[in-house]
Amino acid sequence: WATQYGMQKADGVELYSQDGTDYQLITQSGVSAGQSVVYVPSDIVLNSYTIEQEFGASLQQAESALIQIDTQSNVPQGAEYRLPLFRLMVKILSEYEKGPEVSIYYPWLNSLPRQFFNGVSMTNACFKCLPPYAGWLAQNERITCSHFTAALREGYIPLLAETITNKEVTKWAYNVALTRFHEVWQPERAKVIGPMADMLNHASEPNCQITVDYEGNMNVEALYDIPAGSPLTISLGDPTNPTPIFAQYGFLPQDCATIFCKAKHLDPQIMELGYDYKELLIQTETGEIAPKVWDIFLYDILQNSDPGAAQQFLMACRNGDEGSKEQYQSEYFAYTLDAMKNHFYSIMNDVENLTYKAQSYDINKHPRVPVIAAHNE
After folding, report:
1. Cα separation values, 353 from 246, 302, 342, 360, 373, Å
2. Which of 33, 230, 260, 287 could form a disulfide with 224 if both were Cys (CB 3.0 to 4.6 A apart)?
3. What DSSP element (H or E) covers 145?
4. Is residue 14 helix, strand or coil?
């Protein structure tokens, strides 16, 4: 189907599956650095920018409803940030609704998964088996899907009522958009899906990159020489923090060298210090703890014991004054270490209990148990 509508691929590039269920693109003959491995013409690329133009005023009304819903719910990332994803969902529903006789996309849509394992697809029972950070991310995806569906119902879009009131169909369309888009920033910010390019799997050290030109054509290019028999991969997220990938895509990267310290209870301290989750890491093999993890625990201790010292430590962190930070770290080391131990042992104990709970479920009724247990582990 993709070839029929202009998709081109390098010699030796093909879809491969070991089990007939999970597919990926591989190169059987090898490709050179800079070589185009897959080219998808704009005619079949789903592009949130062109979708906005296609649907016009009818889409704007639904987007206004979405913005209002998000504003009332105090969503962390506002609707404006997620409008490109919403547009992809609308386009997928529109093509689904047209059916095989009208939609050129129908063969592609019909080839996509029906079952997902990410946060949107989880049940309340699943959420009861996740630690706080994973549960928060997974719930955010579920809330976003709910808001998108509500906006479809409240705004004017030329979709049939039987489509937008069908929870299974709307959730499926959201999942297709969420798990297959690629974000581009040039020539304008957009989320795009290129059939066949959407078959690239994730790697912490990818060998390919995706670009979109000014005409909207998508190109997958080799970053370096790729030997024959290799999977073609891109990055689907921050390799230092696998939990967001788990919440969005429903799988676990197996090659993460680091992991977020899971100190969600210190979110206020993280924000005040100006730190990011990707800086608050633990080495998965050596157990080495990043310096900024020590900072957030110490800052919390100082806030509770000596507000004046807490303010001075805050300024030292913001100004990069390593000497002053070291003095505080040395003086309060025993307390910081104790707080970190309590946190880590608590997390490990909680996760063990959560995993035990997950494994008590009937896997036929709760098919996401294996990936939840793998995430917790």
Report:
1. 20, 32, 16, 11, 11
2. 33
3. helix 132-154
4. strand
Q: Residues 6 or more apart from 153 whose CB is under 8 A from it?
A: 164, 165
Cβ 51 vs Cβ 84: under 8 Å:
no
Tokens of 108: 């592609």
φ, ψ of residue 50 to 5 degrees: the values are -75, -30
Task: Say how far apart CA 69 and CA 51 lie, in whole Å.
Answer: 22
Kindly give the confidence (pLDDT) of every residue in the chain, 377 residues in length, as a single tens digit, with 9 standing for 90 and above. 999 999 999 999 999 998 888 899 999 998 999 999 999 999 999 999 999 999 988 899 999 999 888 888 766 666 678 899 999 999 999 999 999 999 999 999 999 999 999 999 999 999 999 998 999 999 999 999 999 999 999 888 889 999 999 999 999 999 999 999 999 887 778 999 999 999 999 998 899 999 999 999 999 999 999 999 999 999 998 877 888 999 999 988 877 788 889 898 999 999 999 999 889 999 888 989 999 999 999 999 999 999 999 999 999 999 999 999 999 999 999 999 999 999 999 999 999 999 999 999 999 999 999 999 988 88
DSSP assignment string, 225-260: -B-TTEEPEE--S-TT-HHHHHHHHS---S--SEEE
Residue 113: phi and psi, rounded to 5, are -60, 150
Residue type, 255: D
Residue by residue, DSSP assigns 261-326 as ---GGGHHHHHHHT--GGGSEEETTT--B-HHHHHHHHHHHHHHH-HHHHHHHHHHHHHT-HHHHH
> From the CB of residue 228, how many other CB atoms can be counted at a distance below 10 Å?
11
Which residues 6+ apart lie within 8 Å of 1 measured at CB?
A: 107, 108, 111, 195
CB 138 within 8 A of CB 175: no
Q: Side by side, which strands form the sheet with 190-193?
A: 46-47, 190-193, 182-184
C-alpha 149/C-alpha 90 separation (Å) is 10
Distances 25 to 139, 168, 198 between C-alpha atoms, Å: 31, 29, 9
| Contact indicator for 238, 278 with CB cutoff of 8 Å | yes
Helix residue ranges, H only, 11-78: 48-55, 57-73
d(C-alpha 258, C-alpha 165), whole Å: 42
pTM score, whole prediction: 0.89
